Amino acid sequence: MSEKAFHLNYRSQRKEVWDWYWKRWRSHLWRVWLTGTVMIFAISLFVEWQQRGSLDARSLAVPAFMIAAAFLFFTLYPQVAFKPQERTLIVDESGVKTTIGSKTATRAWREIMEVGDDGEAVVLVVETGNAFIVPARAFRDDAQRQEFLEAVTQWQTEARNNPT
User: Fold this and answer.
1) Element of type H or E holding 18
2) Distance between CA 101 and CA 83 in Å, rounded?
3) pLDDT means per 10 residues in the chain (164 residues)?
4) Running DSSP on this structure, what letter comes out for residue 29?
5) Which value, in Å, is the radius of gyration of the alpha carbons in the chain?
6) pTM of the entire structure?
7) Nearest to residue 13, comparing CAs of 124, 121, 91?
């Protein structure tokens, strides 16, 4: 482990997860959903037209159901998968190690695609779309939070610029 490491312990809150997801939705996820919706409708209608030779109101039912089900699943999944137990986060120049109960995971900085600060939390977004949402209460004080933000930004930038 490097000389400079941050050891943080905190519990996440459902509202923090929801707020982050909603911010992501407003910033860019809506475009992904719009693209997916158009593609599902177009493909479904094309298949229906190929099979039946015509389209009617029933032709819209299956893609509408698929889109509604996907929307419901992706909206609710972060809340269902939410882990309220205390999290231990160890962050250093090699990456992020997280422990919740008996589960552990490690992410190298090259896997972190974005570091953000929304004023409420420092957010480390993983390539998979998951995120480490580190609330202000996880830090001893504002100085430690600022030091953490500067360090993780530097480590992530260096790793993304030097993928070796």
Assistant:
1) helix 14-24
2) 10
3) 82 86 76 82 83 78 82 80 88 95 93 92 91 94 96 94 75
4) I
5) 21
6) 0.73
7) 121
